[in-house]
Amino acid sequence: MASSVRRPGPSMCWAAAGAAALLTLTACSSSGAGGGTTDSDSTAAAGVPSDGSDGLSGSVTVFAAASLKESFTTLGKEFEKDHPGTKVTFNFGGSDTLAASITGGAPADVFAAASTKTMAIVTDGRAAAGAPVTFVRNQLEIATLPGNPERISSLKDLTKSGLKVVLCDEAVPCGAAARKALAAAGLKLTPVSYEQDVKSALTKVELKEADAAVVYKTDVKAAGDKVAGVTFPESAEAVNDYPIALLKDAPNAAAAKAFIELVTSAEGRRVLTGAGFLQP
Amino acid sequence: MTRLEASSDGAANTLAGGPRRRGLIRPGGSRKPAAARPPAALLLPALIGLAFLLLPLIALLVRSPWRGLPELLTSAAVWQALRLSLVSATAATAVSLVLGVPLAWLLARTDFPGRGLVRALVTLPLVLPPVVGGVALLMALGRNGVVGRWLDAWFGITLPFTTAGVVVAEAFVAMPFLVISVEGTLRAADPRYEEAAATLGASRFTVFRRVTLPLIAPGIAAGAVLAWARALGEFGATITFAGNFPGRTQTMPLAVYLALQSDPEAAIALSLVLLVVSIAVLAGLRDRWMTTS
User: Cα dihedral angle (A37, A43, A49, A52), rounded to 10 degrees?
Assistant: First the structure.
């Protein structure tokens, strides 16, 4: 299935040529050459200047960690504005789920994971074109009910009996990080639930079903006044690196590269740090 | 609406051995099925359809890590999830029986304004995406929900993140199957038996208990099995409403889903267990209900 969308066929290229776009033809041939070569690199670099006539078009599919939802949605809109004719489609979810669907053949152009471990699933499966780049880092924070009625001030407070705490499942980066932080603090915490991604963990607090959740700083920030954030020193022991990579079977490699360029550019950094992410 | 009713009615009848068939008048005496070869226009799609349904299951068997299977299946985590699944699906079926059979009776045997609308609403969870059902349950019975808030304040009961919450989520999704199945059987059952009992002086409840219930028993059983199977496979409403904690709310489908990300072999092994349980249910059904009556 993936092979059928891997490369635009000759007929697609001819159709694009019929539309009198020489640059598009270049894009077709460069992605047809397999991606990751210096030749296609230069094509992507040429596509970055945002003058609207860069030949980028079509849809870019980005699989991204749930915690990137707000900032990537913003960047996606900017990308579409800079490159008229493009459309960025996102699939936000647990990095492990996304990695599994990419290795399973889901048609995607870009993968941005919340940990190097989940990115490794994709690179080990030879589904990435080239080495992933770390573009941001993220730190854990405790999300509590607004006003912090349970007076939670440290990671240790979460172990109080009667407190309903949700964590991410350990297969998900935020769950792995939470486990690392708890181990660093020498604490044993029994949550009421292991959620399948960080947003579901946060939602349980937003809906007041749980008293607290260990999520990312960026999630607390994105939730606004629906939750209150409590920082804890042990989070320094469990900072996640966020890698981004172009996928080998990317149906729209040229535009995908341009999107990655945007994420790693100064503008991308501005949006991401504005959302609470740390510089790599 | 009528389509739903007809299909579940048909399902109930097939499972129950077709109580309606008795009254059927056959025109022209013996009507044997035609012995001629089926036309290719029907045979080909039929075979493709069959392959389509069977191929994934065969693939599951082919890809099963048979060598490591004993080790995977004897792990405490698997048994914990399987036991929780069986217990909660059975409890959800019991809840569905206690509440669903009277509801089906109400829909089939009484006449009240807006009955059609009530019937449509009852079947809504059938077509509603289960995750939506889970969100709705949170809004209703969550700690901060419309009703859940009072449950918490008055009785100290909170359903999310508990095994009871799993049962509630499963019953919500599974009960319509039972109601529809039982209602179909009730409509098919001859009301003259009930009328005769009533003329002999039996109260309406006695009639229900002594005449109606035995009459529709096969339909109830078929509906219960459908509901049980649906509850066993329930995923969306459960993970949304009850969360995911091993031994408490992590049922087999949740375990399969989460294992698939980290340990695909374990996921295949768990799926195999569910497949075996499903086949066992079908086999049990065949002996019990398909061959009787």
Answer: -140
Q: Output the CA–CA distances (angstroms, integers) from residue B115 to A273, B11, B103, B224, B228, in the order listed.
A: 57, 23, 11, 23, 26
d(CA B165, CA B228): 16
Are A195 and B244 in contact (CB < 8 Å)? yes
Give the domain range for residue B89: 2-8+73-250
How many domains are there within chain B? 1
ipTM: 0.71
Q: Pairing mode, if any, of strands A240-247 and A110-112?
A: antiparallel
In chain A, what are the domains?
2-137+241-274 (3.40.190.10), 140-238 (3.40.190.10)
CATH number for the domain spanning B245: value is: 1.10.3720.10
pTM above 0.95, yes or no: no
Binding-site residues on chain A for chain B (CB distance < 8 A): 94, 96-97, 99-100, 164, 166, 169-172, 191-196, 204, 207-210
Determine, yes or no, domain membership for B269. Answer: no
Measured between CA atoms, the residue of chain A closest to residue B240 is A200
B65 closest CA partner among B276, B272, B275, B279: B272
Show pLDDT as tens, one digit a residue, over chain B (293 residues): 334 444 444 444 444 444 444 444 445 445 555 567 888 889 999 999 999 999 999 988 888 888 888 887 888 888 889 899 999 999 999 999 999 999 999 999 888 898 889 999 998 988 888 889 999 999 999 888 899 889 888 988 889 999 999 999 999 999 999 999 999 999 998 889 888 999 999 898 899 899 999 999 988 998 998 899 999 999 999 999 998 998 899 999 998 888 877 777 888 888 888 888 888 887 877 765 554 44
Q: What is d(CA B269, CA B92) in angstroms, rounded to the nearest whole number?
A: 25
Sign of CA pseudo-dihedral A125, A127, A133, A139: negative
The candidate with the shortest Cα–Cα distance to A181, out of A208, A205, A154, is A154
